[in-house]
User: Fold L,D-TPase catalytic domain-containing protein from Asaia bogorensis NBRC 16594.
Amino acid sequence: MTVILRHANGSRATLFLEGEPLPALIGAAGTRQDKSEGDMATPIGFLTFRHVFYRADRVERPVTALRIEALAPNDGWCDDPTHPDYNRQITLPHPARHEKLWREDHCYDLCVVLGWNDSPAVPGRGSAIFLHLPPTSGATEGCIALEECLLRRTIASGHAGIEVRPD
Assistant:
């Protein structure tokens, strides 16, 4: 079984978990079949749940069958399409452009790495597509965001991933 996500309007979407509609946020540019780095769109397709990160200093360890890793201040994710580490977890400091996973906001306090452009990574096709907590801006940069209780339910459900469907 998979979780279904349908784009609603703007950065609003509905995630269907076993038929129950749950409010979600997606990229500010909506969904795209032809995802590219920095386009602010959530990719269309099947996004496998890879593993879970969490901030042990802020939230409880999640209940899930997925591999779980507590984040550390030196965890990052390479989003530089010119670097061999593109779309991979890295240790900071790192010479290439990257995103810090240990953030001041709460977006990555609980975060699922989604399988997008990672087998193998194609430079420029998009990186760091996660299922995480909602940003204060009301839109993601291409990820999918759920309130914490809904995110916990989703990863505890035993589903394999999220099928992002076109508008």
Notes: DSSP finds one helix and 14 strands in the chain.
